[in-house]
Write a structure and sequence with these properties.
- This protein is α/β, with parallel strands linked by helices.
- It is built from 14 helices and 15 strands.
- The radius of gyration is 26 Å and the shape is globular.
- 41% of the residues are buried.
- InterPro entries: Epimerase_deHydtase (IPR001509), Lipid_A_modif_metabolic_enz (IPR050177), NAD(P)-bd_dom_sf (IPR036291).
- It holds the Pfam family Epimerase.
């Protein structure tokens, strides 16, 4: 026999439903049900997703509840299991088809390796960016985020401290990869005019540290002495890759508009860097340091052109005001990032910008980079002797 219920009481039913809602709110939502919930955030594609900053950003976005889906694009598959992988060269015109249904593209497939052939590096960087900025609007993507460097502002003695995002880009193509970055900036400015409706944001980090970053500026701290050019005014500002990824996420989620500069708050003077690192300086006159660096690079003994020295001589500190106004804050301080950098480079030996093997680092007179070091140290010794001679007169 089936038990029949009495007349319905709407007030009682409402109370029961409300109690059930509160009980459900106190019950943890199963992970499987959370994963099945529809997410209203954007679909994001990341190029260069298998390594470096691209890999870190891909992991971050794949774990975010504000991102609907992540398309990871690279020439090889990376380790992120939460992304959908598309294996192809970013210069391939087939990229447009891979971007169908994507809302935002973050382009991080750049070659800034010191050891790369400069012509091949430029061809990859420029052609890759051109392809992304053409394929994205063709596929219906409304936003592209590019990443260059605060180096595009140039390191100049009359730079303001700090520089605003809208400061003029006064860099030249004399430093490693900066010519490529300036061309990317030019393409970024032109793309919205060529493709109306496309939003392009450029993110410019300070000296990048973490995630295996290897640049002329990180190698500066692998040397037994910190080269200081006489009468220069260095100001060191770092950017940890975690803070960069957080800034890129802000751009992806459209929490901030306009080109962005990102770095730790404030900066360190050269004396602070030396005190914190415990590395002593080797000081040279400007003409001697720049002349020696140019000659050593010209004959192939060092990977860094003389233009890299400017970024250790003059300030190029950025304010990051747009990100700050949007609520973003760096988690790392300059002191903390410098400490991590010193840990990362511990045991490495770089002289005159070129990394040495163990044998090169311990055997005097070894070929290649050691020879470059001898040249620089010899120049320094000549300068010191000349100064002593002048004092005796």
């Amino acid at each position: 026999m089936t038990e029949t219920s009495g007349p319905r009481d709407p007030l009682r039913d409402g109370r029961n439903a409300l109690a059930g809602a509160f009980e459900a709110a106190d019950t943890p939502e199963p992970a499987r049900e959370r994963a099945a919930r529809p997410v209203r955030g954007p679909v994001v594609a990341v190029t260069g997703a298998a390594s470096g900053v691209g890999a870190l950003l891909t992991e971050r976005l794949a774990a975010s509840e504000e991102i609907k889906r992540v398309i990871a694009i690279d020439e090889r598959r990376g380790e992120c299991e939460g992304a959908e992988w598309q294996i192809l060269d970013v210069r391939d015109p087939a990229l447009a088809e891979k971007l169908r249904g994507v809302d935002v593209v973050v382009h991080l497939a750049l070659d800034l390796d010191l050891e790369s052939d400069p012509a091949a590096r430029t061809a990859f960087n420029v052609r890759g960016t051109q392809t992304v900025l053409t394929a994205a609007p063709a596929a219906g993507v409304h936003r592209v985020v590019l990443c260059t460097s605060a180096m595009v502002y140039g390191a100049l003695p009359d730079n303001e401290l700090p520089l605003s995002e809208d400061a003029e880009l006064r860099a030249t193509a004399e430093a490693t990869g900066v010519g490529d970055l300036l061309e990317i900036e030019r393409l970024a400015k032109r793309a919205p005019r060529t493709h109306p409706g496309l939003n392009v944001t450029v993110v410019r980090p300070a000296v990048l540290v973490g995630g295996g970053t290897d640049t002329a500026l990180t190698r500066y701290f692998e040397s037994p002495r910190l080269l200081v050019v006489a009468d220069s005014r260095p100001a060191w500002q770092f950017c940890h890759v975690e803070d960069l990824c957080a800034a890129l996420e802000y751009a992806v989620l459209e929490r901030v508009e306009g080109d962005l500069a990102v770095g730790c708050d404030g900066w360190l003077e050269q004396e602070q860097v030396e005190e914190l690192s415990g590395i002593r300086r080797m000081e040279l006159p400007s003409a001697v340091a720049l002349g020696a660096a140019a000659r050593l690079h010209r004959i192939g003994l060092t990977p860094s052109p003389a233009g890299d020295l400017a970024y250790t001589m003059y300030p190029w500190v950025v304010s990051g005001s747009r990100l700050h106004h949007a609520g973003w804050r760096p988690k790392w301080t300059n002191e903390e990032v410098l400490g991590e950098l010193l840990e990362e480079v511990a045991g490495r030996h770089t002289l005159a910008g070129r990394r040495l093997g163990r044998k090169d680092a311990t055997v005097a007179g070894a070929a290649g980079a050691a020879g470059a070091t001898v040249a620089l140290l010899g120049t320094a010794a000549i300068v010191r002797r000349a100064r002593k001679a002048r004092r005796r007169i």
